[in-house]
Every structure is written in C-alpha cells, then in structure tokens.
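Let us work through a complete example step by step.
Step 1: write down the sequence.
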Amino acid sequence: MRYREHAPPAHLAASVECFWTYDADPAQPEQRVLPDACEDIVFLPDSGLLAAVGTMTKAQVYSHAHSQTVVGVRFHPSMARPFLVVAGSELADEMVDLGGLWGVRGEQLRGRMSAAESGAEAVALLAGELRPVEETPAQRMVLWVAEQGGRVRLDDLARFAGLSQRHLRRIFLEQTGVSPKLFCRVVRFRSLVSRLAQKNEANWADLALDYGYYDQSHLVNEFRELSGLTPTAFVARP
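Step 2: predict the structure and record it as tokens.
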C-alpha cells in the first residue's frame, strides 16, 4: 500500500488526526490530494522541503520525479494553530517552508528528518517536535461542526454561540483558513468521499439526500468543483 496512516500517540490525539507516509513512485499515476478541511506538515526527502500545508479549497495533483517516502502529520480541523503559529487564512491553498515559521527549530528538524533512514524514523522525529495543547472555545466550535459532517445551519450556530455572522466568519478564517460556509462544504465532501471509498456502486440521488445536497446535480457539481472529477469518474479510478 503506497499511502499509510499512523495513529498519533495518546498525548497528541486531541490535536493530531494522524501521521502518514506516502511511497511516491514516478512510474505510478499522479497523486490527487483532495480537500479535507485539515492542515498538515509535510516532508519531501527528495527536495528536503519541510513545509506547512494549509487548508485546501480544491484538489491538488502531484507527480514525483524520484521514488521517495513522503511523511506528514495531519491536524484535526483548526488544531494546527498552536503548532503553525500563523492564521489559517495565511496558509489556505499554500505550502509554506516551516523554517520560515519555526526558524532555527524548523531548520534543525529538517536536517534530522533528512538524515532519517526510514519513513517510520522520520515520523517519530516529527512527532517528537509536537507538544500537547488545550483546545480553545473557538477550536471546540470548529471541531463540533466537523463532527456534524458540516450539516449545520450557520445562522443557528452563530446564534447559539452568541456571535455575529461577521465574528463567526473571522473565527473560521483564523482557525481554518476558509469561510464557515466553505468549511462546511469541504467537510461534507470529505464525508461523502469516505463513504464512496467503501462501496463500488452508488445511488447518487440517495446520496444527495443523505448528505444534504439539493439534488443529484448539486452533488455532482460540488464534487467536480472540489475534486476535479465527477463522482462517477472518482469511483471508477483504479
């Protein structure tokens, strides 16, 4: 298996969704990375790049010139803030050198990971740089929306939280890099992708109803916008 997820240690589980490795092979098809409402730290040993990757608003397609084991950590939605030390809005759809965010600490980690003899060793080095943090009320709110699969009325959320729509938007941009509406769309899309990965056939009309799309056309259009593929083409991939 080329892509593997590794559970975080218990003391990081509240902040980290998983650590992961990807065995890139130039002989294989391009890698399509889908939006998932999360932020990552990624290390590419071939180039030595250690970077923070912001929340994605559309799929990104990568090709690799050389075989390498790419290593990363994926944070729960909004939980990257204490680690990346910049607003989510500064990272959305961007890959930013971690040395520019962490300074000497980032450069030293890059050097140690470059010398790692395996992906597992590189994961351990990355995990060793992260410390447990407490959730803030803003982060708890974002996480709750993610737990609901994005199926949330934003007017109700703002009212229950005692926030104006403007303040709610500012919190989501700060914590996730995207607006609350787009965050909900991406979270819903991610839930749909996860379900499609578990079955070979799909009734698109029923799925549209299950996931709160207006109709099948709405599902197809939104899926194409976020993934670059139709749902049918996504399911048919090898």
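Step 3: interpret the result. The chain has a mean pLDDT of 94.
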